[in-house]
């Protein structure tokens, strides 16, 4: 399974005078679920693009299974590490949902037979079977996002990076995306979520990497990091709902059940009492 | 697409940036016309050199240089067509130099003039507001469309698309997954902009006022004089038989 090692990574855009990322080091191993959090402009997407080879480090290195990304094509990395753009419409061009999923499979050399079988499976898993012949642009926001993830997961990458998965989503759509991402985590695949939505991140990820002005200011257990008032303030974030609830009410045990994030307040209290 | 960087306005406080867009536009158009009518290597080199000075004064030489990489593709096309259709390497060089002079004549103007300034200059010239506004919006959206192109391109590369792979026909076909989302996004944006303009009563009043009226200053008269000298010199060179 995939292992991503980032060592003393510095990155600067060609025309910029300052670094967008500075001295970043961490490793992500198989099966981890990691949230990359931070304020706007902190460098989250830049970091994600360095992880999947779209951007190459200015200094330092990013290694995928021991190989420097400078020596790998984006397509080679994409086979192992899938990347879902924050705007799903940036990837749609096919007339039908099924052809959108087929695109990546063709690029990676799947036979038509294998592709047909995979498309069937992936559309079922992501709840998109009924839209198979529909134009991707005619789907709802949540369905578009699911299709974007499905068309990447079709070739079974070992890790998935999802940029802003909940942007512009209503509550029900968020739950659907969460269900999809959790099922990927439960398969032992690595999921990296870039988001501002701390409640969403807390309901999926065990670990968080917090960025501020291009530097890592926190790396560890998500729950521990987001309980730290100073760190949360420095990263322009807020504490997840359950952590705040615990602090304000003195109730304990809520933190063990981040699933409750999808429940109503009454349900949370009932769970706690029982 | 990197050649588009040479046409993206950069906010700077230089003498060139402070000039009235009308005088800059006049010089720019004359430089462009001279680039078109001459094929003499000395004239074209002089034009490029003169524009390098203008770009230096506008502190935009770096942007112009970085855009040249994007022009290399067009230079290659020029050389290829010359070789294929019986031309020489020298004519390929001359045509490439002319392209450089032409693009530079617009480059320093766009690098140093805001789209709003250009729109105001067009309004003052008596063009209808619908036309000037469309022009201003088109210029303003070049960098936005470029950024969107880059994002779409990155997304498709993350799905295994390799634009550099295969022959010419294959490469053109490979562009479709990038161009279709770009086109759809651009068309959608135009509708959104039209709605946003309508809800703010665009076109409700037939007579529009200008918030910051344009005024020619001494520097602008100097540029106009330089433009006149350039036209006279070009006419004289033509009379001398220089092509």
Write the SSE topology.
The complex is a heterodimer of chains A (274) and B (243).
Chain A: E1 4-11, E2 21-28, E3 33-38, H1 44-51, E4 59-64, E5 67-68, H2 74-80, E6 81-84, H3 97-107, H4 112-125, H5 141-153, E7 159-163, H6 171-186, E8 190-194, H7 198-202, E9 207-212, E10 215-221, H8 222-225, H9 229-234, H10 241-249, H11 265-273
Parallel strand pairs in A: 3-8, 3-9, 6-7, 7-8
Antiparallel strand pairs in A: 1-2, 1-4, 4-5, 9-10
Helix pairs in contact in A: 3-4, 3-5, 5-6
Chain B: H1 15-18, H2 21-37, H3 41-57, H4 61-84, H5 89-112, H6 115-124, H7 129-157, H8 168-199, H9 218-239
Helix pairs in contact in B: 2-5, 2-9, 3-5, 4-5, 6-7, 7-8
What does this structure look like?
The complex is a heterodimer of chains A (274) and B (243). Chain A folds into 2 domains: 4-96 and 156-237, Rossmann fold, CATH 3.40.50; 240-274, no CATH class. Chain A starts with a strand and ends with a helix. The longest helix of chain A has 16 residues, at 171-186. By secondary structure, chain A is α/β, with parallel strands linked by helices. Chain A has helices spanning 44-51, 74-80, 97-107, 112-125, 141-153, 171-186, 198-202, 222-225, 229-234, 241-249, 265-273; strands at 4-11, 21-28, 33-38, 59-64, 67-68, 81-84, 159-163, 190-194, 207-212, 215-221. Chain A contains 11 helices and 10 strands. In chain A, the strands form 2 sheets. Chain A has a 6-stranded mixed β-sheet, sandwiched between helices. Chain B has 243 residues and is an all-alpha fold. Chain B has one domain (9-239). In chain B, helix 2 packs antiparallel against helix 5, helix 2 (21-37) runs parallel beside helix 9 and helix 7 (129-157) crosses helix 8. The longest helix of chain B has 32 residues, at 168-199. The model of chain B has no long low-confidence stretch (mean pLDDT 87). The interface between A and B is medium-sized, with 27 and 22 residues.
